[in-house]
Write a structure and sequence with these properties.
This protein is mainly alpha-helical. Helices cover about 65% and strands about 0% of the residues. The termini are far apart.
Length: about 220
């Protein structure tokens, strides 16, 4: 028999197992390095060990291989099959786990050359957002009590039906007060940016006509 031939002969199962062990040892680091983008190192090692055990079980069951190249090819196919199974299992656990499995790993050499991107707001943006929220809170104090009540309810996620049932309002009153509250708050914010003092009274609190000041002329 030639060096590359490992066809099965009677009583040669131990020789075939030895050949599988030699091929597995020679291909292990190469295959783990080539397919490092598929899974974490420890998961790839588990998949490779499973593939090697499957080849050994095949020999124990009476199977054979034509050559070491045949062993190497079969080993890689079994390894990739186990890696695909592992990826499907991991991705099915949760959406977040699926994202993590597809992400670049910082312990890989190629990933170390890439600076991670922080997609969250910058410190300056956070400061501006918080300052704007404080300003809106101050401006809301110029609204009427009903207007603040409606806006607070909307910010908390309460529905119109729930609010009206709790306070005994009609839907029309709720709609009008909410609309006036938003318009008033926008006018206050725009006036603050332009430097023009806002009006002190809102459209829903304007006094009606006072007829006592009208001269009685016929």
């Amino acid at each position: 028999m030639s060096t590359g031939s490992v066809a099965r002969r009677p009583g040669r199962s131990s020789d075939l197992a030895q050949e599988i062990a030699l091929v597995s040892a020679s291909k292990r680091e190469l295959l783990l390095r080539i397919h490092r983008h598929r899974l974490r190192r420890e998961d790839l090692e588990d998949c490779f060990s499973q593939a090697t055990l499957e080849l050994l079980a095949h020999v124990e069951a009476g199977g054979s291989f034509a050559s070491r190249a045949h062993i190497a090819n079969t080993l890689e196919l079994r390894f990739l099959s186990r890696a695909h199974d592992c990826r499907r299992a991991l991705s099915g656990r949760s959406p977040m786990r699926a994202v993590l499995e597809r992400a670049d790993r910082l312990d890989d050499r190629h990933a170390l050359r890439v600076e991670p991107i922080d997609r969250g707001p910058s410190v300056e943006e956070l400061v501006l957002i918080r300052e704007e929220l404080r300003r809106i809170g101050r401006l809301s104090m110029s609204l009427s009590a009903d207007q603040r009540l409606v806006l607070g309810s909307q910010l908390s996620g309460e529905s119109c039906a729930g609010f009206c049932a709790r306070h005994g309002w009609s839907r029309e009153k709720y709609r009008k007060v909410a609309q006036r509250a938003r318009s008033r708050l926008k006018a206050l914010a725009d006036a603050g940016e332009s430097g023009v003092p806002p009006a002190r009274c809102s459209s829903d609190s304007l006094p009606g006509p006072t007829y006592e000041h009208i001269s009685p002329h016929t």
